[in-house]
Amino acid sequence: MAHFIAFAEKRRRAAALWRFGLLVLTLTLTGNIFAADTTADFSAANKLYAEGKFPNAAIAYANILETGVRSPALWFNAGNAEFKSGQLGQAIAAYRQAAQLAPRDADVRANLQFVRSQVHGATLHESRWQNWLGFLTLNEGALLTAIFFWLTLALLAARQLRPALVPKLKNATWIFFALTLFSGALLALQAANHFNSAVAVVTSAETTARSGPFAEAQSAFTLHDGAELKVLERHDDWVQVANGAGKIGWLPVKQVAVLPGA
Q1: CA gap 207, 24 in Å, rounded
Q2: What local confidence, expressed as pLDDT, does residue 31 receive?
Q3: Where residue 133 falls among pLDDT bands split at 50, 70, 90?
Q4: N or C: which end of the chain has fewer CB within 10 A?
Q5: Within 13 Å and on the Cβ side, how many CA atoms surround 224?
Q6: Pairwise CA distance, residues 262 & 240, whole Å
């Protein structure tokens, strides 16, 4: 009887492993199909752009983005299509997203600055320290900090295991410890700027910022397509913003694209 139970248990485990393997294979194949579909959609959008059908290309890129796919090339091409369609705000929003994924891409930065030069009125720009913090992506900053941290631990472990190496590893240990603290502090600042310093980009031809979060509130100032503003507060379907000149007002969320900080 014990042998029968053991055999049945083995069969049950084997069946479970087979089902798990089938599930993994199914998910893998499904993922490949989705990847193939995305590639086909991306190629179709690029073809529309090459044919000069810029509004259609912008819609095609937006449809891909709605599936959750994110890449610098996709955001960059979407920005190009929006700009060619005369949508400055949508173009700036797309370029900003591309820049967050590829902060050192010269083409992304150049196009972003060019479109910004077409915007009328006061607008917000990243400060020098924000540009400096944005040299690396959040993932790159986290990876660099992790590398310094584990190298420091490895050096400390080596000093414990081989006391004779302590004099030789002393300077290296302090250097990597300092680098860990420095990169960790920069990562904290970068994360705070990214998650706590939201930016609103005006996506309508012209909009009026109001003194309160309701349509009947007094007009505060006027904004044009592409204006970038610092987000101060949110209330229902309204967002409180400050422009490059320091003026504060409320805008309907539907007239802006709200993005994380640089």
Answers
A1: 50
A2: 42
A3: low
A4: N
A5: 10
A6: 19
Show Cβ contacts of residue 74 under 8 Å, excluding neighbours closer than 6 positions: 42, 61, 64, 65
Two tokens, residue 37: 């579909």
| Sequence-separated (6 or more) residues with CB below 8 Å from residue 122 | 227, 243, 244, 245, 247
Nearest alpha carbon to residue 259 among 84, 92, 120: 92
Q: Residues near 85 by Cβ (< 8 Å), separated by ≥ 6? A: 54, 55, 58
Q: What is the DSSP letter of 217?
A: S
Query: Which carries the bigger pLDDT value, residue 36 or residue 261?
Result: 261
Q: In one letter, which amino acid is 140?
A: E
User: What is the C-alpha separation between 259 and 262, in angstroms, rounded?
Assistant: 9
Radius of gyration of the chain (CA): 26
- The answer to whether 194 and 97 have CB atoms below 8 angstroms apart is no
Please tell me the distance from the alpha carbon of residue 104 to that of residue 256, in angstroms, as a whole number.
Answer: 26
CB 258 within 8 A of CB 199: yes
pTM as predicted: 0.74
Within 8 A by CB and 6+ apart from 203, the residues are 87, 89, 90, 93, 225, 255, 256, 257
> Each residue of 184-214: pLDDT tens digit?
988 888 787 667 678 999 999 999 999 999 9
The DSSP call for residue 87 is: -
Selection from 1-5, 22-26, 164-168, 233-237 with the highest mean pLDDT: 233-237
Query: What SS3 state is found at 118?
Result: coil
Q: What share of the chain is helix, strand, coil (3-state, %, to 5)?
A: 65, 15, 20
